[in-house]
Design brief:
mainly alpha, globular, 251 residues
């Protein structure tokens, strides 16, 4: 039972690498797709946060405490953003500044999604330990969510480094946060993790994802000359996640 539960967390977490495979196709490596993919990622993260994660948190701990968790998550990632060194951007010349910004954007997305994946790993593990069928359903849901998150990480990393392997590496490392979270929880937190704690964490993660979308993704994606590409990506991202949530609800 324990082996199956951990296996589910690994499969769900590493599904981020499926999304990262888009940069292996020459057509999608064209820079014109960057705005679309980053808008897509923002649409995914914003929609999931407001349509699924925040309501789930509110259902477990009440709307007031879910909002407290949401804005706590925003405050925490804001502090991370403020205290992350920005000196390397100042060292960039005008031509290289866009590359530096994209790399920082991809890195921040990877950090945010890794934080997002950490409690998801805990959720998959303990759900599977209690009910393997439920654990499988949750793992499928998370895997579907993680695929577009892999796109969110790999696209800016590829465009800043021109390395497919680095883009793949960043998305894989972010996905590994899920089984790592499960292992840490199992070893150290088993007696402390309660449904209430998990619901509060889910609310915090929603705030983190929304902040990253507005502070990192959309400013990098929005191009005044081709702003409709970004809007198109946002809408498609929301539609994809809406369909996945509807399908998962029928599992």
């Amino acid at each position: 039972m324990i082996f199956n539960a951990f296996l589910l967390t690994i499969i769900a977490g590493l599904s981020t690498t499926i999304g990262s495979t888009v940069i292996w196709f020459r057509k999608f490596r064209d820079e014109k797709y960057l705005n679309i993919f980053m808008g897509f990622a923002a649409g995914v993260m914003i929609f999931v946060s407001f349509a699924e994660m925040l309501p789930e948190s509110a259902e477990g701990i009440g709307f007031f405490y879910a909002l407290v968790a949401f804005f706590t998550g925003m405050a925490l990632i804001f502090l991370v953003d403020v205290f992350v060194p920005h000196d390397y951007e100042e060292e960039c010349n005008c031509e290289a500044k866009k590359v530096c910004n994209l790399k920082r954007c991809g890195t921040m997305i990877a950090i945010g999604i890794a934080i997002h994946n950490f409690p998801e790993g805990i959720a998959v593990l303990f759900s599977a330990l209690n009910d393997l069928k439920l654990g499988i359903s949750i793992a499928i849901a998370i895997a579907l969510h993680n695929i577009p998150e892999g796109i969110a990480i790999s696209v800016p990393i590829y465009h800043s480094t021109k390395s497919k392997w680095k883009a793949f590496y960043y998305s894989a490392i972010s996905g590994l946060a899920e089984p790592i979270g499960a292992i840490i929880a199992f070893i150290f937190l088993r007696t402390f993790i309660t449904p209430t704690v998990l619901d509060f964490i889910v609310g915090m993660v929603a705030g983190i994802m929304v902040f990253i979308s507005f502070d990192e993704l959309l400013p990098r994606a929005y191009n005044h000359e081709n702003h409709h590409q970004t809007i198109f990506g946002i809408i498609i991202g929301m539609v994809v996640m809406a369909i996945s949530i509807l399908l998962i609800g029928n599992i």
